[in-house]
Design goal:
five-stranded antiparallel beta sheet; 188 residues; 3 domains; 54% strand; OB fold (Dihydrolipoamide Acetyltransferase, E2P); SH3 type barrels; mainly beta
Length: 188
């Protein structure tokens, strides 16, 4: 059995019949009362976000999860279609089960989380940082690197992000999929 000392970011817990992933957690200690452990939880099988508090040492119920590599093939009426890179089995996921779907492009590999107890597919996660091509942005200003002014740029997936003024159309940029922010320009 696991207890509150085993809580970590990314851990998936079973709570009140639903599955939640730990986004953030911490501990509150006071001189008079017992320590409390709190966590911000995001629903895996639902779209809820909640906060939960336990007494230090309480029992929690983690779910055993396996991460497999899948390749994104295409999007159609059934959803986003992926293929297992080892068994070539294909699955379709809905948009709400994919983390940062706006940065997904054909042929890209993602990690698919699978509940090992019942082989249920929980979610798909993109890598933390990916490289995408800019398809449209206003012309850049050469030498303007002193300010943190950003302009809008459309990526090859259709998503828009803020990029520095010196970045031009047709260039490759690294994007943080967790925050949706520009990281750096990439040489081809």
């Amino acid at each position: 059995m696991a207890n509150t000392a085993d809580i970590s970011r990314g851990l998936i817990l079973s709570l009140d019949g639903s599955l939640y992933t730990v986004v953030e957690f911490g501990e509150n200690k006071t001189a008079r009362a017992a320590a409390k452990v709190w966590a911000k939880l995001k629903g895996v099988d639902n779209s809820r976000s909640i906060e939960k508090t336990w007494n230090s040492g309480d029992t929690i119920y983690p779910v055993r999860v396996e991460k497999r590599t899948y390749q994104f093939l295409y999007k159609d009426d059934t959803g986003y279609n992926f293929m297992d890179t080892e068994s070539f089995e294909q699955i379709a996921l809905q948009e709400n089960a994919i983390d940062a779907h706006q940065y997904l492009k054909e042929g890209q590999e993602v990690g698919v989380l699978i509940n090992t107890e019942n082989d249920q597919i929980l979610a798909a996660e993109l890598p933390d940082k990916i490289v995408l091509k800019i398809t449209y942005t206003e012309p850049g200003l050469r030498g303007d690197t002193a300010t943190r002014t950003l302009k809008q740029a459309t990526l090859e997936t259709g998503a828009t992000i803020g990029v520095p003024l010196f970045v031009n159309e047709g260039e490759l940029v690294r994007v943080n999929t967790r925050t949706g922010e520009y990281v750096e320009r990439v040489k081809e």
